Amino acid sequence: MTSIPNISSWEGILNINYQKKANKTEIKSSYSRSPFKVQSPFYPENNDVCHTVIIHTAGGIVGGDTLTQNIYLENNCHSLITTPAAGKIYKSNGKIAQQNIKIKIENNSCLEFFPQENIIFNGAKYQQNYKIELAENAHYCTWEIDRFGRTARGEKFTQGDWKSSCEIRQNNKLIWVDRQWLAGNEVNCQSINGLNNYAISGSFYWMGSQVSLELVKQCRELANSHISRGEIGVTQGINGVICRYRGNSTAEVKRWFIDVWGLLRVHFLQKDKIISRIWQI
Asked: How far apart (Å, rounded) are the C-alpha atoms in residues 257 and 263?
């Protein structure tokens, strides 16, 4: 039995441009090329926040795929983007799969970018690159949750290669760089500098405003309600906060990240968190 789908590689493109019109954030223009598809936006928070679901119609990413996303928010916009299900990075056919995401957020705008977790199959070769540009009064919030290996089958990430690069600039000044690399082997599965015998790695970023040490402390305290087994860390950034998780439960890391998001959302945006109708937590 093979983990490699019998399909050709994709060169997918997704471009979305948001605008504020008549006190409503809406999609001004969008273009997608398979396997990407954008569902019709919905508004569970009146017209203020445009909730958008991005679908990957192929069901997963294979070696040789090159996927590009460009997301642009004009002034005074607020959008929440998510995905309907866990992403899958399949075992490589020998080629590297790549995803490049560029996001630009103008003044007084906010993007909350919450793709559901990725499952990195053993043998996958994957590289992703994020480049984020924030205006002076813009905010960006996101999480990245990756499960290495199909653990329900007892699979570990003992072969393959996973790389991630994230650069965030505000007012043309670099405020955060995060580069991660996990080579698939037994040593990295066990090492304290790798997965430390856990399966899941999670990162949460809130960027755009200075986060006080008191809020950083509250982010750590929120972990006590959800993290039963696993490791967490919270770091005050130049203009934001970064939360880390290493453990075995997608549900517990999501609950923690959602609570942190809710805390920061109320503080900086004066908005309560709203759980997306498609999240399973």
From this structure: 10
Q: Is residue 118 part of a domain?
A: yes
Q: Is residue 3 part of a domain?
A: no
pLDDT in tens, 111-164: 999 999 999 999 999 999 999 999 999 999 999 999 999 998 999 999 999 999
Q: What percent of the chain has pLDDT over 70?
A: 96
What would the pLDDT profile of 222-272 be if each residue is shown by its tens digit?
998 888 889 999 999 999 999 999 999 999 999 999 999 999 999 999 999
Domain that holds residue 142: 11-269
Looking at the domain assignment, is residue 280 inside a domain?
no
The answer to whether position 220 is within a domain reads yes
pLDDT at 275: 84
Work out how many domains the chain is built from and give that number. 1
In this prediction the pTM is 0.94
